[in-house]
Design a protein that fits this description.
Blueprint: H1 5-10, E1 26-29, E2 38-43, E3 49-53, H2 55-61, E4 83-85, E5 96-103, H3 114-120, H4 123-132, E6 145-148, E7 159-165, H5 168-179, H6 182-195, H7 197-217, H8 223-231, E8 239-246, E9 250-257, H9 262-279, E10 282-283, E11 302-303, E12 307-314, E13 317-318, E14 328-336, E15 354-362
Parallel strand pairs: 4-6
Antiparallel strand pairs: 1-2, 2-3, 5-6, 5-12, 7-8, 9-15, 10-11, 12-13, 12-14, 14-15
């Protein structure tokens, strides 16, 4: 990791460790009077050297340095008291199943000192605190649910890139800003405006023509329509592809639930009700409203629905070969009581088969530094 001259001027590098290390060893050094630390990793085997790395890379290799205690990963003990389908599903080290756990929604900006978290760990830690810090998350009274692995498991990542057109004047000013100090670019912008007036004058004439045509005929014409039809040219679009963000992941799981006895019919009904309760809002309670002392204030508000941790399990732990997700919102629960196209029940009224479709949306984005975990 190299620093530019401007970065070196504002960042006092800690000294390189003097002792030798083994591949993957990490160290932190700080110079006297420095406000930040420098992170190092030994690379190259016995004949290698210490190389500077980013803070995020260091914390990934040393998760214990994070400023919060992460929400414990699910394991076999997490399945205690859960509702299962099939009822007699084996829970051995070879078992594959999906575990659904339900937590109270944590407002992302409530009770979290992001400046303090960031100063002690990293920006990613601060961003993820509201979904991974155990002090903020509280399990609900809803039972956990265990279901078999569905036939369709997939995940996807969608980045948003779009073309942006710039005028010659805008391009020149942005080029100046990108070549050095933005403040200097702003102070020099006036010079660009003065030297670009000749470019702007034709545009002013076309704007007049555009306005006259619109007033007389009501037709909407663009400057490029006028340039193209009168001179055979259009404005240079100067199009550049720019990144505008990443989408939150969505996924869906579909189950066919066929009870083989009375107990399974009862459990299926409980499972459906758990998901329905988790995705629906509830009325706010007195303790939820801290900004008003009125006794009936809570009647004006509803509580945000619970969220769900969806874990694809292999025996006693997560299956690292299938996608895992951060905390998710349940966006849709569809229940088809006649999946075969015919209404059919057992003698007690329970359905012969039910199709349960669940849709989820992840509450946080995934960053490149976390891709090994998700």
């Amino acid at each position: 990791m190299a620093y530019s001259q401007s970065e070196q001027a504002s960042h006092i590098l800690g000294p390189k460790p003097t002792e030798r290390g083994s591949d993957g060893d990490t160290k932190v050094t700080t110079s006297p009077g420095a406000s930040t630390s420098t992170y190092w990793r030994w690379e190259g085997g016995p004949g290698g050297d210490w190389k500077r790395i980013s803070k995020n890379t260091y914390e990934t290799a040393n998760p214990e340095v994070a400023s919060y205690t992460a929400l414990a990963a699910p394991n076999l003990s997490s399945t205690t008291g859960s509702i299962r389908y099939p009822k007699d599903a084996a829970m051995s080290k070879e078992s594959d199943y999906v575990l659904f756990e339900f937590y109270k929604y944590q407002p992302p900006f409530q009770g979290i000192n992001r400046g303090d978290v960031t100063s002690k760990s990293s920006g990613i830690s601060a961003y993820n605190a509201s979904v991974t810090d155990e002090q903020f998350y509280e399990k609900t009274t809803l039972d956990s649910v265990i279901l078999y692995m569905p036939e369709d498991i997939s995940t996807g990542y969608k980045a948003n890139w779009s073309g942006k057109a710039f005028s010659n004047l805008g391009r020149d000013i942005l080029s100046l800003a990108g070549s050095g100090d933005i403040g200097q670019a702003l102070s020099n912008a006036g010079e660009f405006v003065d030297t670009s007036l000749n470019q702007l004058l034709p545009n002013a004439g076309e704007k007049t023509i555009e306005a006259v045509i619109g007033k007389i005929t009501g037709e909407q014409v663009s400057p490029n329509d006028i340039f193209g039809s009168t001179r055979g040219v259009i404005l240079n679009p100067n199009v550049e592809l720019l990144f505008s963000g990443i989408d939150l992941r969505n996924f869906a799981l579909n189950y066919r639930l066929v009870p083989r006895n009375d107990r399974e019919a009862s459990d299926i009904r409980k499972i459906i009700n758990v998901f329905r309760k988790a995705m629906l809002p509830s009325f706010a309670q007195q303790g939820d409203i801290t900004f008003s002392s009125a006794e009936a204030a809570q009647d004006n508000f509803i509580r945000v629905p619970n969220v769900c941790r969806v874990s694809f399990m292999k025996g006693s732990g997560l299956n690292k070969y299938v996608p895992q997700y951060k905390m998710c919102a349940i966006t849709q629960v569809d229940i088809n009581y006649t999946p075969d196209g015919t209404y059919a029940t057992y003698g007690d009224g329970s359905m012969v088969a039910i199709e349960l479709s669940l849709a989820f949306q992840e509450t946080k984005l995934i960053f490149a530094e976390e891709v090994e975990n998700y």
